[in-house]
Amino acid sequence: MCDGHDTLRSNNKDLQQVEKQWDRRNFLTKTSLGLGALALGSLMNPQKTFASLAAGGSDNDAVNSILKNQLGLPHHVPKAKRIVYLFQSGGPSQLDMFDYKPKLKDMYGKDLPASVRKGQRLTGMSADQTTFPIAPTIMDFQQYGESRAWVSELMPHLAEVVDDLCFVKSMQTDAINHDPAITFMQTGNQLPGRPSIGSWLSYGLGSDNENLPTFITLVTKNMPGQPLYSRLWGNGFLPTEHQGVQFRSGKDPVLFLSDPENYDGHDRRKMLDYLGKLNNLQHDAYGDPEIQARMAQYEMAFRMQTSVPEVTDMSDEPDYIFDLYGKDSREPGTYAANCLMARKLLEKDVKFVQLYHQGWDQHIGCPEGVRAQCKRTDQANAALIKDLKQRGMLEDTLVIWGGEFGRTVYSQGQLTKTDYGRDHHPKAFTMWMAGAGVKPGFTYGKTDDFSYNVVENPVHIHDFHATLMHLFGIDHEQLTFKHQGRRFRLTDVHGKVVKDILT
Amino acid sequence: MQETSDFVLFLGRFHPLVVHLPIGILMFAFFLELINRFQKQSNFDAVIKIALLLGAISAFFASVLGYMLSQSGDYEEGMLDSHFWLGVATIVVTFLAWILKANFFPLPESFKVIRSNIAVLTLIVVLISVTGHYGGNLTHGSDYLTKYAPFNDNKKIELPALASLDEVVVYPYLVEPVLEAKCYSCHNESKQKGNLAMYTPELLMEGGKHGPILVAGDAAESEMYKRVTLPESDEEFMPPEGKTPLTDEEISILKFWIDSVNVDFTKTLAQLNVPEEIQLIAANKLNLTYSGKLASDAMPKVNVLDAKTIDVLISEGFQVRELVLGSSLLDITLPDNTVDLKDESGLNKKIALLVAIKDNVIRLDMGGNGVTDEHLKSITVLSNLQQLKLPDNPITDKGITYLKQLSVLNSVNLYKTNISKVCLSQFSEMTNLRKVYAWQTSITSEDVVSFNTNEEGPKIILGL
Fold this sequence. Notes:
A: alpha/beta, Alkaline Phosphatase, subunit A, 2 domains, two-stranded antiparallel sheet, 34% helix, B: Leucine-rich repeat, LRR (right-handed beta-alpha superhelix), TAT_signal (chain A), Alkaline_phosphatase_core_sf (chain A)
């Protein structure tokens, strides 16, 4: 059972003696229960028990799957091969960016009608307000492209690519505060502990480039706002190798990957081989899948010693590409630089690239806050779309832009002609997607005149997740993982694929 | 209702296995009793006694397992009930037979007629047979036993295979299979839920207890169509809870039949104006060829490959993904710079591997690997190729002429190649081609503007 025992265990006679000293309890457990457990184990999991047989056995057996994806994936032909998720943390104001509500102009300062709010739960930050004065946006809106999509003056670059975008204006979430809302958006549950979307995809579909992680996270540096936790790209209860790997800005994109000083790494391969043997021994004895995960991570880190410096090297990018993404893109760690990095990673067939950009939480000074945020991100967003498109990658790459919720139509705090604040609003917000399998130049869903309630085609976060999985060839009801006696899915017991936005 | 635990169902599945123990043992007892009866000098009573006890005990265990299995809810209730009670009766009778045989309670002389003899054993055999028959029906379906029996003329009439889509008669080839798969189990000769039978055209038109279920030309008003398109949670939704709902394709077929065929039972597709979508569905269902506009979205049926072939591909540096598990439809990528450009035969060898599985390659990416016009010539045999990515390769206009043979190609990526505006006209001759990526070639946006005059042609996508 344990290959390599003899070569690895000590030759010390005394040690061998100790190993052989089984007490009564140990003896009985190993012989009787052990045998029974083996028999039962083979019933429950024939793959593992007979794995060695199958590997050496004949190939003539009609194997149902030539690629042996044990989860039975994909379920149907996928449209998307990779995804870049541009997460806008804090809750971007749909009212100042995409969801144009001209009728609000005449309602400036009036109290939000109770018939609209319908007793909606508010956050502690504005619930005590005596009035809820309507704050129409001060931004100019115009229609662009053949699709005549409304975009505010804050995003001149994005306006150029609206015919490639699919806007969903009727997004809905259950959470009203940042952490549960982001956790919900990224893992399908408001409480921490579930795997993130990227981990599910990595678990279900595996890697397309074994030299790089399947799931990579990039966070814009030096941004204020609600904190982000690494559990947002965590693997939850899935095997550890499916967690997202964060690439940092600066000298070392992945910490501790480079060789320490005065060590040239010439015998690392040998070291890893030996470590692998030891770990195999341990795995044979205990069967803990985390041991395998650890081995996989060591090997991945080894390959990343060459692949990461290669992919993060920006020196071969021509100037016009930097110009496309904006001058920020030359400074590592900015949103623009991360967008460019995302493209490079996607080019290398990294399956899931997740960007986080904080600072969208405009409780006060909303117009200036949103304006500054758009300035940081607008050009890079549009550039990423254009760049993927000209390389033909938009065809099988899904691009998603969105935050964890929207913002209220009423002003939090003082409303003036030029300034207002907006509180969190979970009942309606806007996201956009582009690329693989989603309709370009399309707008789905509709909110009421206050951008407060969805009046047409609501898309709940579970539906969004189901649709995302669908684009990757996954039936969201079928990809499950049994943990603590229950089978879990990304969409829990909800979710409907939004077929109307698919090509 | 509380969900039955997996373990109970796991044990339950041993019922069909264990149940053969009592059958064998009790049959054995029956034969011994027969010998006992006709060969006066033999006396097997002692053996029969043990056999009856073992039979009763094993029957009891089998029935416990059977009860566990029944908790899965997969079985039809009525028949399950009969099977259950007959099983219980078998156990009780067998125990009684054993008690009588063992003579535990010596009966008064006048009751001696009641004793375990050939009659009781015969009764046991009859009970076992009937119980077993119900069990078999539960497992395999009630027409399993008689389906191929010589006296059964209800055998399914096989529809003759067709040569082309035009010959397809809509009702028997497209609609009836849907009804058969999803409706007949409750609306047939022996079972007519809601007084509705669907197995003949006349009965189907007659409808159920609420009247007709079909309105010719108006699917939205037809009860049958309404019921299958309700939200699944609706009380009225058909098929009822627990059964497989109709697929989108099946619903499209019903809609087409009601709306466009006017609920006719004899029309063929040739007599109708058939939407591309329906043609595609029909071609897929009946294994016919479809060459219309949607051809490049349709997935061909191809030979299943063995794992060895894939292993060879992977060892040559290809990344291989199956589009749908088990389909052998492949999405193949050769990561850039896999091929050593100095090694002339390197790429040829790899392409030969692709040619060997030419029908299976649906998407192919060979960017940045020194692919030349000559290589393109050899991959034109990949007749099911829908997506081809060849950026950053020394390909010229000459190579594009070969691509025309790829009849279902819908997207080709040629960015950073040496093609020029000469090949634009080649692209427009390719009927299924929708997208051409030509950034960083000598093709300019003016070339594209003058070329893209008709809407039908492929879209040429440039960049900065």
